[in-house]
Amino acid sequence: MGEKKNRKQGKAKERSGQRTGLLRAVRNAPSAILSGAAQTVSAATLFFVTLAVDTTRSVSSTLLYPFAPLLKFLLPATVSTFLLTPALKNLPKKKSVANASSAPSYTLPPLDPPQTPSSVANIAAAAETDSVSFQPADSSSEFTESVSTSTRTTETIADVTVTEFLTVSGLTVSESTKLVPESNQTATPATQVIEETITAIQDPFIPQESTPAAKMSGQIGKIPGVGAETLKYINETLKKRIMFIDGAMGTMIQRYRFTEEDFRGERFKDHKKDFLKGNNDLLSLTQPKSIYEIHSKYLEAGADFVETNTFSSTTIAQADYFMEDLAYELNKVSAEIAKKACIEYTKKNPAKRRMVAGAVGPTNRTLSISPSVENPSFRNVTFDELVVAYSEQIRGLLDGGSDILLVETIFDTANAKAAVYAIDLVFEEDGYDRVPVLISGTIVDQSGRTLSGQTGEAFITSMLHSSPVAIGLNCALGADQMLPFLQAMSKATPTFVICYPNAGLPNTFGGYDESPEDMARQVKQFADLGLVNIVGGCCGTTPDHIKAIHDALKDYVPRVPQPLDPEILYVSGLETLKIDRNLGFVNIGERCNVSGSKIFAKKILAGLYEEGLAIARAQVESGAMVIDVNMDEGLLDGKAAMTKFLNFIASEPDIAKAPLMIDSSNFEVILAGLKCAQGKCIVNSISLKEGEAEFIKKAKIVRRFGAAVVCMAFDEEGQAVDANRKFEICSRSYKILTEVVGFPGGDIIFDPNILTIATGLEEHNNYALEFIEGSKRIKDNLPYCKISGGVSNLSFSFRGKEALRQAMHSVFLYHAIKIFGMDMGIVNAGFLTIYDDIEKDLLKLCEDAIWNKDPEVTDKLLAWAETHGKDAKKDNSEEEEWRKWDVELRLSHALVKGITKYVIGDTEEARLLTKKYPRPLNVIEGPLMSGMKVVGELFGAGKMFLPQVIKSARVMKSAVAHLIPFMEIERLENLKNLQLDDVDPDAAYNGTIVLATVKGDVHDIGKNIVGVVLGCNNYKVIDLGVMTPCDKIIEAAIKNKAHIIGLSGLITPSLDEMVYVAKELERRNLKIPLLVGGATTSKMHTAVKIAPRYSQPAIHVLDASKSVVVVSSLLDSSQLEDFVQDINDDYEDMRAEHYEGLKDRRYLKIEESRTKRCVLDFVKHVPVKPKFLGTKVWDSYDLSKLISHIDWNPFFQTWQLRGKYPNRGFPKIFNDETVGAEAKKLYDDALFMLKTIVDEGVLKSKAIVTFWPANSVGDDIVLYDPADDEGRTKVVGKYYGLRQQAEKDSDNDEPYYCLSDFIAPKSSGVKDYIGGFAVSVGFGVDEACVEFEKKFDDFSIIMIKALADRLTEALAEIIHEETRKEHWGYAPEENLKPEELLQVKYQGIRPAPGYPSQPDHTEKTTMWNLMEINEKTGISLTESLAMTPAASVSGIMFSHPGSTYFAVGKIDKDQIEDYAARKGMEVPEVEKWLMQNLNYETD
Asked: Residue 970: pLDDT band by 50, 70, 90 thresholds?
């Protein structure tokens, strides 16, 4: 853990004048340092060094003091020590009460800023107490300490057996071995004794058959089977509960206040390094008992895992102290100490195994960032050096007994890839038992990126190949700041999730102030949202923090990992690219290839690497999603050139965001490239041409780096030409890669060889067809694999005939994508034409060539090229023919073709056509939008590719930019006419709209047009741009008091991000309507995926022209309710249609559904006891009081009268031009009959309410005798529940509901209650109908039945309201209007048997029997369990604020059988009553 080793605390005095300015400058520097740009980091580093040199020693130390943890990583130890090291002042003597009878003790005063040199890792820190008492120790002493009192007592090793003292890894040593120091001699180092006396390992989890020889060797890491048992235990435990990891080792070490002498001990008292204080890892050798005590305190607090004290125990990090040779020993001994503690605590509670996490830190070097401003390609460490260093560390950790390995605090993913590479090497080649691996990265600030610039999702993509048990985050941020990034990463990983944040953010002095209680409260959010499986603490956390976290989260259900779609190929640069059919064809930029680009080759051969970067950048900007880099040139050192160029790319975030394809025929060059890339690359390529053994060897190396692989259709016999051979070779390769090497199918990309056609040789003419047929067979038979190819090879025989080649490539891709879904290709992203725009004669020639339809096609193509090539006479009149068209057609043509040359003039011409386009906005809404619509249709049909769409977007932006000044003039004139001005910037606007292209998406043309349209209609638009994180959207909405938020996106992954934003808006309890738009969005997706996640309006907007109507409706209070209701009804119908159409919907087993139940808090919301237990009956109720509670909307629906928006609902229906007049007449008739009903007593009412003591047991609710509330032993009845089983979307974190979830479980000991009611205003309806029948008055018959229904519903509403406020009294302060009651804004629910939350009508019999409803009210049940009178309502009442209405939906047979057994009914009988809910056919 970052701070677990080196957290510095203290006070810094403020300086004035120049020093104050410097202080501000330094404290602002981390934002630049953490930006992920290598040059910025280097500049910042040099700034610190320069500052130290230019100012006094004390000033530099003071200024740099808060940045010690960061500089520890970035600067060599000697430099950082010179800049940062403080020393304690002379300590005044003072008697210690705690040690009054012992040697003199000292009191440490509050520390001033650092003034003199000391240790990097122990910059003076104030302890939690004002003073710390301790006894001065000589170098031969061992110490014990009570951390809570911060006192230390001396203890000398004398006549103590190794078993009695510090048997650090649970090892039994012979009793005859004593540690008895002779006079004037020091004790034998504990590690030496352990090495000499190992006889057995007392760990119950190590198989008993393990050989004594393996134990005696000291290499307990090689004992087979231990890792598998550990993995099994962890996997099983993490499915049941959240596990806990310890807190900061560094924070605890600081409490001991070790001196330089303490760090050195006797063994290192004469070590050549001038200071060792700060090398915390060394304390495992010199102060082992203190380290053991720290582990023990964390285990006592509830930790399942404790980390070894080895964060810096690599040869690289220890080189700062000249202690490289100690690396193995430090790791082994540290693991032994932790193992000792874990075994002791496991013995205390064998049911909870305690485990050692071997801590593997990032080192103080970085593979992705240059330490030199002048040379961005320079690195101060190599991948191989890191692998060697990590390998030695890992062997020591495993030999010391580490149960798992934890690669942590990853600020550079490339370093972490070296670590997991080393881990795999140690397992595979050194014979060590494979143990579980955990991985934890560090997001350095609110950008959501690591120090080397990767997003959290890209970090996961880069590391998943190591098959970690858990992956997550630690350090740098507190829990609250870490939450959004943890949410994003939780969605992106199929593994368990680990998170151990800091105790908040550091204060001015580098310390941490967040209390255990506050931190636990924030970490609890992780569990509330179902994000975590392993939780702990990093910087600033103590055993108290871990205990608080443990106690707060121990009973939570852990996160359930969701598998990734195996069809998707995930690759990454600084950002993740998901390659699947939704993304469409992926353009791989081909111009960074010295073999294929003369310009690029010339620059690289001349050493102009930075100019070569411009070519890479241009490809990304043109739409290349992956950058191919090839350095195969005879005059180049391919390995050096690849390394240098990729290091340059790493310094350019605009380029480095794209994944890399490392391309070479020399595998050593490929290796050189893999060692430079922190992202998940694509290797191009390997094949079987050198035989299976070499193929497997290379494939294993590629897999160890975590790269995807391109596999060529070559074998020992040569290149595959025909479709059969292509399929044969690829099938054989696929089997080896998946079954032998372990590649997932989605990481395999086949290149079945696009060969050149139309060469003049007949045998070549069928090559395109063979590729297409072979590729289709490969895709159909080899699951999840991808197809790629070098498209330019197809037309190689026509080099120099670029117009012809463009057409051939476009026709070939059109068919390859359409027929078999070609996934990607190496092609110049800007070198394609639109299929439909290819000249008809040329199109036919290309089609004939690709499909081999014409044996003379080669000659015909050559003839065409001669007349249309670069030497042919240009016919400018034909080329510019389109310039004679109408301006609307010209604008559309320019958009489709991506021509910017004339767009400004044409746009101005259209604007001046004021009769046709009175406002500048009309030009956008008219010809410009029409052109973009054509672009969208062509793109959707596969006839345009993304680079072409990007060109079209640039044309659109140019046109809109020209119109904006004119639209602003128009807006200001409108304000002037309204006698408003812009003095108050918000007063004149109709509302404020925040617009953003969501995170992961860079497309903004549609959003920009919406912004322009809204701005022209006098709305204030806050445009957040592209790639906007959710937090930024929410913060901007709050800050600007937004009335509406608009989200935009073009690519499919944006849809998931929009769902996430909706969920976050709901979690943050915002009330701002949400608009959704963009090319991939749809009304159906919004209805099914987004709207259900947000309780406020979430509305799909088809295009910019519709945005004003939607926004104005949402902001018009007179229209809002009806508009939203109309949308909600429409979306509800769409959801029902969607789910009905899901034929292959998966259903969870009932036991799995129960593990995902709704868990409510019955402690915070203690159930309220009703004012009475038992039954209350109303023999009549004043009907006149019901009229104000009538919901008239169902009344009009009964008569099939429904207004259209904006005249939906009562009373606006009266304004509807179609049904309004008839509705008003009907309403008047209803009021007249109501008066008669009330005045003449035509209808009678009855009501009954009963309350019972209740608790839930599983899916059922047990009801107790009202007289037995205290004892709760006399059961009078049981309500049986049904639980949702239909699998919910992966982005839906809703639980699987059952009504029993809303009642406190019996096991909780909480006393809960439940209510039942039945009401009717139907008494008298039948008699009245008889009279109307005599008069043949069918109208009145329908009217009185409809009114009886309305009055009954109103009575149910009033009885429920009185129950909440009076009879039960759990909401006594409720004060809702009738319309708010109808909108269900009250606490609690009243579902009825036979309805969605409990669709079983037979549950009514329990109500009727327990409440004696028929006897006491006359409301009875028919044989089919319908209520009579028909105008009757009944239900069950729940009070918990977390209770909610839901639909059980379809259920499976396992639940039906379980339900029938609980109810004591036959399965066929249950199936009969629940026929509409069955997910299967009955016999």
From this structure: confident
The CA-based angle 37-42-46, given to 5 degrees, is: 150
Q: For residue range 301-340, what is the model confidence (pLDDT) as tens digits?
A: 999 999 999 999 999 999 999 999 999 999 999 999 999 9
Which is the catalytic residue, given 304, 412, 424, 1001?
Answer: 1001
Phi, psi of 1478 (to 5 degrees): -80, 135
Q: Which residues lie closer than 8 Å to 775 by C-beta, 6 or more apart?
A: 726, 750, 752, 787, 816, 820, 822
Q: Running DSSP on this structure, what letter comes out for residue 186?
A: P
Handedness of CA 832, 833, 834, 835 (dihedral sign): negative
Is residue 1003 flagged as an active site residue? Answer: yes
Of all helices (H) and strands (E), which one includes residue 61? Answer: helix 57-64
Q: How many CB atoms are closer than 10 A to CB 1187?
A: 16
Helices (H), 259-326: 260-264, 283-286, 288-301, 315-318
751 phi, psi to nearest 5 deg: -115, 95
What pLDDT does 904 receive?
Answer: 94
pLDDT tens digit sequence for 1393-1433? 998 999 999 999 999 999 999 999 999 999 889 899 999 99
DSSP one-letter code for 1451: B
Distance CA(295)–CA(301), nearest Å, equals 10
1449: left (phi over 0), alpha (psi -120 to 50) or beta: left
User: Is-catalytic flag, 1001?
Assistant: yes
Of 301, 384, 295, give the one whose Cα is nearest residue 333.
295
1022: β partners: 994
Instruction: Please write the tens of the pLDDT for every residue from 1030-1076.
Output: 999 999 999 999 999 999 987 666 888 899 899 999 989 999 999 99
The token duo for 192 is: 């030496």
Catalytic residue among 60, 1054, 1107, 1397: 1054
> Has residue 908 got a pLDDT over 50?
yes
Which of 1099, 1101, 1090, 1040 lies closest to 1065 in space, CA to CA?
1090
Please enumerate in sequence order all residues whose Cβ is within 8 A of that of 38, keeping only pairs 6 or more positions apart, or say none.
368, 369, 370, 376, 650, 651
3-state secondary structure of 1478: strand
Given 295, 545, 1003, 1100, which residue is catalytic? 1003
Cα separation, 1411 vs 1251, in Å, equals: 9
Active site residue 550: no
Backbone φ, ψ for residue 204 (5° rounding): -65, -10
Mean pLDDT of 933-947: 69
Residue 688: DSSP 8-state: S
Residue 365: what are its φ and ψ, rounded to 5°? -125, 160
Spell out the residues 6+ positions from residue 907 whose beta carbon is closer than 8 angstroms to its own. Answer: 891, 923, 928, 958, 959, 962, 963
Q: What is the pLDDT of residue 156?
A: 29
DSSP calls for 1241-1273: T-SEEEEEEEEEEEEEETTEEEEE-GGGTTT--
Rounded CA separation 1017/974 (Å): 10
Q: What is the DSSP string of 1147-1159?
A: B--HHHHHHT---
Candidates 473, 490, 475; CA nearest to 438 is 473
3-class secondary structure, 1026: coil
Structure tokens at 301: 């607090």
| Torsion over CA: 826, 829, 832, 837 (sign) | positive
Look at phi and psi of residue 950 and say left if phi exceeds 0, alpha if psi is from -120 to 50, else beta: alpha
SS3 assignment, position 1187: helix
For 109-126, the three-class secondary structure string (H helix, E strand, C coil) is CCCCCCCCCCCCCCCCCC
CA distance 557 to 1399: 28
Composition of the chain by helix, strand, coil, percent to 5: 45, 15, 40
d(Cα 809, Cα 827) in Å, to the nearest integer?
9
